[in-house]
Amino acid sequence: MSSASSNAKSPGHPPLAIESVAKHFGGITAVDGVSLSADAGEVVGVIGPNGSGKSTLFNLAAGGLKPDAGKVRLQGIDVTGWPTWKIARTGISRTFQIPSLFINMTVRDNLLAAAVEGDWQRARDRMEDALEMLEISHVVDNLATELSGGQQKLVEFGRVCMRDPKVILLDEVTAGVHPNIRQIILGAIQRLRKTGITFLVIEHDMEMVKEICDRLVVMDQGKIVAEGDFETIANDTNVRKAYLGRT
Amino acid sequence: MASKPVQTPKFIVRALLIGAIVIALAVLPAFIDSYTLRIATGALMWAGLACAWNIVGGYAGYISFGHSAFFGIGAYTTAILMQSDFGASFFVTLLPAIILSIAVAVVIGGPTMRLRGAYFAIATWAFAEMLMQLVTVLDFTGGTAGLSLPAYLNEFFFYYTMLIAAAASFVGVWLLIEHSRFGFRIKALRDDEPAAESLGIRTNLVKVQSFALSAAITALFGSIYAYWTTYIDPHSVMGPQITDQMVVMVLLGGLGTIWGPALGGVLLWITNRYIWSTFGDTVIYLPILGVIIALVVLFLPNGLISLLVGRQRGKELISNILRKF
Ligand SMILES: Nc1ncnc2c1ncn2[C@@H]1O[C@H](COP(=O)(O)OP(=O)(O)OP(=O)(O)O)[C@@H](O)[C@H]1O
Ligand SMILES: [Mg+2]
């Protein structure tokens, strides 16, 4: 187990490859044999009705949950079953659907904490960059609890950037935020993807999806029921069934 | 803005304040009688102990109800090694005391700190109880009769030894937790473990490291205490009242702060001695501890230190730690 650092770049391997992963909770099959891979710089949208298994899929990819079956590979490295911290150090970083800032810490410390297992020497410079990109420099000394919901999302995004990851998973990062903040997030994703970072984004906002995603994956009841670009998905009967059939 | 903190005036005020405290503590013995010197020595010890408990309780957010075990491990290790069979000199006993306490902390903390905080609290409490029973029945610990140590009748020696140990603990915590990566790791896992893990922080390891550090400092004070009092028994160095005091001192002063535990330790120890000298007994001390805990948790969740330094962090600290249960 020596390849925990992110230097094992094999050109032939996608940054993220999920292979037939499954996860059961008691009687519920939350994720049911999902395969998905994403290329460098690609933004893949993961959509689907509530409870369709999107967040669980993210947890399986980032190591918060261990898959009952299937494999997860990062740049070709099989990280299935690894502890979360080790997977994180291999180059994947994620935000959480429920707010998960370090609430007794300032924005500054939240961001710096994200760099302790990475490039600590340049952490402060990188923090300035992240603060500037996300337009939160003015709240750097505020406690996490003193921020608006949208600002909290920005800081969580900033924390992810501080990791310098190859793959970023965003779980409903724009849910319920002010349009200005959504615009900031959108700009940041566009900018980072150009540097080759791969994104998987769970989104309920179709405008956002349409604007940033190269490709969409639609989940329903733990399975991928459709895949393709926005136009294809919008006209797909399976997708309509998934959304309309149960709401 | 600049990446360096530009708070020069504040920094100078702080440096002057710390310098004044250090000088005052260094020259204090010249101005007080030997009774007061004993109280001061005890106050330093409790400040250091509170500081130690705070590492795992306040910074990592794992509540230990078994720190008396480490105090006792230190005290008994020193006492046993200084018996005539071994005849070790005092300073030589410190290293084995510290190593043993770290080993025990790893064995207890390793498996239980992976679980919710309640498991850790119960495990540490149960272990401390068990260890106290054990030293009560074992031969080489002197059983209920306890152990006597060779007397070293120099109050100044103990005052300065406690001062150095307390100062070293304080500075150690300050450097390690307020000014290093370790501090970010430990505070991050306290606030949100899954998030900390997702940032590459090896939370299970950091938790055990913090517990071991806390245990080692506690054992160090146990060692010094044994030599100071020249006589120890199971209750005096392993009784639950030792843990209780540490917990209340930290809560009173300010959980998870750098100055709070020292403040709480000194204040509460002086109160303890005052009650003792006034009533000839410390029976009412325990109910007072209980009332203090209740009042602090209800009305002053950030402890007394928050009155002095104002806002330092969120009010959520205690509830955040309790949530781990
Ligand atoms: N830890 C868990 N224990 C038990 N069941 C779970 C757990 N996590 C998720 N589930 C169940 O798994 C299914 C998928 O949940 P998941 O959170 O992945 O859905 P989602 O697509 O993210 O939904 P949403 O859009 O509401 O966030 C749901 O039925 C959910 O109740
Ligand atoms: Mg979800």
UniProtKB/TrEMBL annotation, chain A:
Give the GO molecular function terms. ATP binding
ABC transporter domain: residues covered: 16-246
Provide an example Pfam family for this protein.
Answer: ABC_tran
Keyword Transferase applies: no
> Is ATP-binding among this UniProt entry's keywords?
yes
Keywords of the record, alphabetical order, are: ATP-binding, Nucleotide-binding, Transport
Entry-linked SUPFAM superfamilies: P-loop containing nucleoside triphosphate hydrolases
Instruction: Fetch the Gene3D superfamilies from UniProt.
Output: P-loop containing nucleotide triphosphate hydrolases
Q: Can you name this protein?
A: ABC transporter ATP-binding protein
| Organism, scientific name | Marinobacter iranensis
UniProtKB/TrEMBL annotation, chain B:
Q: Where are the transmembrane segments?
A: 12-32, 38-56, 88-110, 117-137, 157-177, 211-228, 248-270, 282-300
List keywords of the entry alphabetically.
Cell membrane, Membrane, Transmembrane, Transmembrane helix
State the source organism's domain of life. Bacteria
Spell out the subcellular localization from the entry: Cell inner membrane
User: What topology does it adopt in the membrane?
Assistant: Multi-pass membrane protein
CDD domains, A to Z: TM_PBP1_LivM_like
Q: List the InterPro entries.
A: ABC_transp_permease, LivM-like
Q: Does the keyword Transmembrane helix apply?
A: yes
Instruction: Respond yes or no to whether keyword Cell membrane is given for this record.
Output: yes
Instruction: Report any Pfam family annotated for this entry.
Output: BPD_transp_2
**Could you identify this protein by its name?**
Branched-chain amino acid ABC transporter permease
**What is the source species?**
Marinobacter iranensis
